[in-house]
Amino acid sequence: MAGSSCKVAIVLVAFAITIPCLEGGIGTMDEFLKERAMEAHEIALKSYVPDPTNVTSQHNNLHVKETTRKKPKKESNSTTTTRREMTEEKDKKKYKGPCLALNPIDRCWRCKKSWAKNRFKLASCVKGFGRRATGGSKGKIYTVSDPSDDDPVDPKEGTLRYGVLQKDPLWIIFSKSMIIKLNYELLISSDKTIDGRGHTVVIKGGAGLTMQFVNNIIIHGLKIHHIKSTPGGMIRDSWDHVGTRTRADGDAISIFGSSNIWIDHISLSECEDGLVDIIQGSTAITVSNCHMTKHNDVMLFGASDTFSGDKIMQVTVAFNHFGQGLIQRMPRCRWGFFHVLNNDYTHWIMYAIGGSSGPTILSQGNRFIAPDDDKAKEVTHRDYAEPPVWGKWQWRSENDVFMNGAKFIQSGKPLGKLPFNKGYLMKPRHGSQANRLTRFAGTLKCKVGNPC
Question: What average pLDDT does range 338-349 have in this prediction?
Answer without folding.
Answer: 96
